[in-house]
DUF2924 domain-containing protein
Amino acid sequence: MEQELAELETLSRDELSARWQKQYGSLPPTSVRRELLIRSAAWHLQAKRLGSYSAETRRRLKFAMADVSKTLADRRANQLAQKTDGTQATVPLASTSRREQPLAAAGAKTGSGSLSKPKRRDAQPGARLIRDWNGRTHVVDVIEGGYVFEGKLYSSLTAITRKITGTHWSGPSFSDW
């Protein structure tokens, strides 16, 4: 498989586009860089040999796609409402950007219901959690009453995440173990 992955680098854009078309059923957008075509072909090659996403990952991806679709639909609806009456409440985005977005796009109720986030399953004792960070693979073993990382016992994934990154992150969010 390593040889096949290396050979992807030697394929022309036309050959990579043909692979894309076979995998997705349509030609790639003209703006897609060659690197993405290579990565896509590599992922499909590896998934064919090693298996695709787990059922849990597919479930989370479906949730994320539905969440993005709902946010975009809410944003469009708010833009239309703003055009008709000229007013619109806004809140700052959570990112470092100073742009603003409509309340509905920031997660406010819109009357059309809301998607509930999938419940995160806690890792059971005996599980091994693996996360790559900055080119290094980190392994955490789940035991009754805590977590073992680099031979030390920790009471939370957040404490381990702080050790790995040097800053505060939510352990479960950082890891998505």
Q: What stands out?
A: Confidence is low (pLDDT under 50) at residues 88-114. The longest helix spans residues 55-85.
